Amino acid sequence: MYDDGTALMPVDAMYVWAVISFGLGLSLASYHWFARRNNWSMGEVQAHHVSIAVFIGICAMIPALLFAAARWQEFGGWSIPLVGLALGLFFTAILRFYSQISLFLAPMAAVMLSFIWYMR
After folding, report:
1. How far apart (Å, rounded) are the C-alpha atoms in residues 13 and 32?
2. pLDDT in tens, 30-40
3. 1 and 46 in contact (C-beta within 8 Å)?
4. Which of 96, 101, 32, 95 is nearest to 60 (CA)?
5. Helices 79-93 and 50-70, packing angle to 10 deg
């Protein structure tokens, strides 16, 4: 608690990891389509092994969707896919670099979400 009587607002780590996992997974799964349509550069996996990138992206989105379904009404889990969609579009359209690095970050975020969720 601060001196003026206001309290710190706790951060829901699982919510944050779910949004990141969904956003990065969506960005990874959809980047090839956006890149071909807009003539953006693609990495090796995005250009020649699209099914691997889409598979990793979908696998990163699944724990986030399961977590959102588990918290749907009680804690605003319905906002996880919405905020994740906005984050995924931001990663894909503005920060194209994250669509490439999502090959590593999306599975890491999904593992972190799953680990924290399992430990609770």
Report:
1. 30
2. 999 998 999 98
3. no
4. 101
5. 150
Task: Report DSSP letters for 8-63, one per residue.
Answer: PPPP-HHHHHHHHHHHHHHHHHHHHHHHHHHT----HHHHH-HHHHHHHHHHHHHH
pTM value is: 0.87
SS3 state at 120? coil
Q: What share of the chain is helix, strand, coil (3-state, %, to 5)?
A: 75, 0, 25
Measured in whole angstroms, how far is the alpha carbon of residue 35 from the centre of its chain?
Answer: 19
Amino acid, single-letter form, for residue 68: A
Task: Establish how many alpha carbons lie within 13 A of residue 2's alpha carbon, considering only the half-sphere containing its beta carbon.
Answer: 6
Q: Compute CA distances 98 → 1, 4, 58, 87, whole Å.
A: 37, 40, 16, 11
Q: What is the pLDDT of residues 40-87, one digit of tens each?
A: 888 888 889 999 999 999 999 999 999 999 988 777 788 999 999 999
Report whether 69 contacts 41 (CB < 8 A): no
Distance, in Å, from the CA atom of 50 to the CA atom of 45, rounded to the nearest integer, reads 6
Write the CB contacts of 88 (distance below 8 Å, at least 6 apart in sequence): 22, 23, 24, 25, 26, 27, 30
